[in-house]
Amino acid sequence: MPDLMARPLIPGGSEGRGSCLEASMSDPRNPVIGILGTGDFSRSLAKRLMAAGYQVVVGSRTPKRFVALFPEEAEVTTQMEAASQADLVFVAVYPEHHSTLVSLKATLAGKTLVDVSNGLRLNRDGPSNAELLADYFPESVVVKGFNTISAWTLQMGPRDGNRQVFLCGNSQKAKDSVKQVCCRMGFIPVDMGLLSSSLEIENLPLYLFPSWRIPILCTLSLFAFFYIYNFTQDVLHPYITSRKNAFYKMPIDTVNLTLPSVALVMLSLVYLPGLCAAFRQLCSGTKYKRFPNWLDCWLTTRKQFGLCSFLCAVLHAIYSLCLPLRKSARFKLINMAYKQVKMGVEDSWVDEEVWRMELYLSVGIMALGLLSLLAVTSLPSVANSINWREFSFIQSSLGYCALSMATAHTLIYGWNRAFDASQYHFYMPPNFILVLVLPIVVLLGRLALFLPCVAGRLRRIRRGWESCRQIRFMLPGEEYRNGMEDISNV
C-alpha cells in the first residue's frame, strides 16, 4: 500500500513534468524582484510575487523598522542592497520622492524599473510620472504598469478584482519580462505601446464615471423638472385654489409620479440616437460619413441611459408597493367607506376602473420584466456568453417591446383623463401627456424604418452601398470590338 501511494499519478511526472510553481521556484533563471518602498502597495505586491514563486527583496531607508510588516520569506534590506540584488525593480514610492533615489542611478543602470505611481489629479498636459522617472534614470529602462491595480486586488488575488494590467514602455524586451511576471501573478497584461502612453495610463484610475456624467445629469434634470411639475399640479394648485393642504404627498406620491416619467423618457433616449443615426445614413446615402460628436457620444452612452431608466422603474415599483402602507392611504380608505355607508351605497364596483387598473398593473409588470432582462444582458459577464445576434435581438427587439409596454402602461394610466378639463391645473396638461411625446415619436420612427422601401435602402447602405458611387451601366453605342461591346463607358 505505501508503494502504491508513493507511485506518481502521471508516469514520469515526478521527474520531468512537476508542477509549474515548483519548476518556477527551482528555476535559477527566475529574476530576483526588487521593491523600493514599504507602503501598503509594496506589502501586497510582495505577497503576490512570492505566491507566484519569485524571490523578493524589499529596499527601505529604515529596514529594521518595517521588517516585521513583510512576510518572513521576503528580504527587507537597504535600498542600495535591494537595487544591487534585483534584476527587475518595482518603484513603489510617491512620485515626488523619485528624486531621492538618484543615488541609486549607477546601481540601477541597465535594469528594468516598473513605475506603479499615480498622480493626485488628472494630468492632461504631461509629462507623466514614468517619463520623469526615465529622466532621472536615463541608463535604466522604465516600464509603466500596475498603477490601475489596488493593494486590495493584489492581496486578494485577481479573481476578486480587475484582471487587466496596462503596460507601456520603449523597450519590448523589458515589457516582455514584466508581462511574464504579470501572467505568473494571475493578471492579464495589456500592451499600450510606448512610454508616451503612460500619461493616459496614469489618468485611468483618476476618472470618476466619465461615461455616466451625461446620463446621470440628464436623469437628475428630468427628475427635478417632473417633480416640480407634479408638485405644482397636485400640491400647490389645491392649496392656492381651495386652501387644501396636500403637502404630505411630497415624499411618496409626488416622487412616485415622477419616477415613471423619468424612466420612460430615459428609455426613449436609449433608442432615439439609433433612429437619428439611421435617418442620417439614409439622407447621406452612405455609412462612411462620420456622425457628429454629440451623436457619437450619445450612441456610446446608451447603456448608461438604459440602466438609469431601469433604476427609476425599480424605484417606482418599490414606491408603488409601499403606497398601501401609509397612514394617509388608510385614512382615505376609512373615510371612503364611511361616506358609502352614510350615503347608503351598497355596491361601489365600477367595471371601467377595474379593467383599467388590471390592465395598468399587468402591462407595467411586463415592462419591468423586459427592462430587467435588458439590464441583466448588459452585464459584461452575460454579454460575453451570447453571440452578437442574440445580444442584438435582446437589446433591440425586446428593448422596443419594453418601450412599447411602458408606453402602453402610461396610456392606460392616463385613460380618458387627457380629455377632462379639470385635470388641466393652471392650464397645464397632465404630466403623462408630456411624458408620452418622446416615446411615441421613437416608436413612430421605428415603424417608419420597417417600411420595405426604407428598410431595403438602409440595409444596402449598411452593407457598403453608397448612393453617390453607384455603378451606372450605359447602353453601348456604335463602338464595338470584334462583336463585343465596349465597356469603357461603364
UniProtKB/TrEMBL annotation:
GO terms for cellular component: endosome membrane; plasma membrane. One of its GO terms (biological process) is iron ion transport. The keyword Oxidoreductase applies. It is a multi-pass membrane protein. Residues 261-395 form the Ferric oxidoreductase domain. GO terms for molecular function: cupric reductase (NADH) activity; ferric-chelate reductase (NADPH) activity; metal ion binding. It catalyses: 2 Fe(2+) + NADP(+) + H(+) = 2 Fe(3+) + NADPH; 2 Cu(+) + NADP(+) + H(+) = 2 Cu(2+) + NADPH. Its cofactor is FAD; heme b. Pfam families: F420_oxidored, Ferric_reduct. It is found in: Endosome membrane. Residues 33-119 form the Pyrroline-5-carboxylate reductase catalytic N-terminal domain. Gene3D superfamilies: NAD(P)-binding Rossmann-like Domain (3.40.50.720). PANTHER family: DUDULIN-RELATED, METALLOREDUCTASE STEAP3. This is STEAP family member 3, metalloreductase. It comes from Nothobranchius furzeri. The lineage of its organism: Eukaryota, Metazoa, Chordata, Craniata, Vertebrata.
